[in-house]
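One such given next:

>
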Amino acid sequence: MEKKRLTVALVAHDAMKRDLAEWVAWNWEKLLSHRLVCTGTTGRIVAETLMSRRSKDTANSRFDITMLKSGPLGGDQQLGAMIAAGDIDMLIFFWDPMSAQPHDVDVKALLRLATLYNVPTAINRSSADFLISSPLMAHEEYTPVIKDYTSYIERNVK
């Protein structure tokens, strides 16, 4: 039984990029078998971390990373569109709870979409550890239940 390749989004605010890099370094072998989507500088840091962690056995393996724009430059919105299209299976977002972000509204919209489309979401290292170590990561297929919003849409149409 072949393990399903998930599309995992990795995002981190500036003050949290080091934490995410450490988490990626710790979990690089698990991440290697999945498609990764990263915003801005986070993507470069993730790629550098993965390259430095590869063993000689996996040196020829390519990482499947899609780089989006920086969050404040539209990357959060690009990622939100991917979530709405059903193209993201998991979101790992190390956000900085101690600093206001100039694009807080974009961050809120991104987290709202992840909730709306029932995308498993980790917002810190502990929750990311739980997600990546979940037995559901090893299953061939997992389909999250998506709420039917038809009645919501139709109530506004007259």
The helical segments are 17-32, 40-53, 75-84, 104-116, 125-132, 150-155. The two ends are 49 Å apart (CA to CA). The beta strands are 7-12, 35-38, 65-67, 90-94, 121-122. The first helix runs from residue 17 to 32.
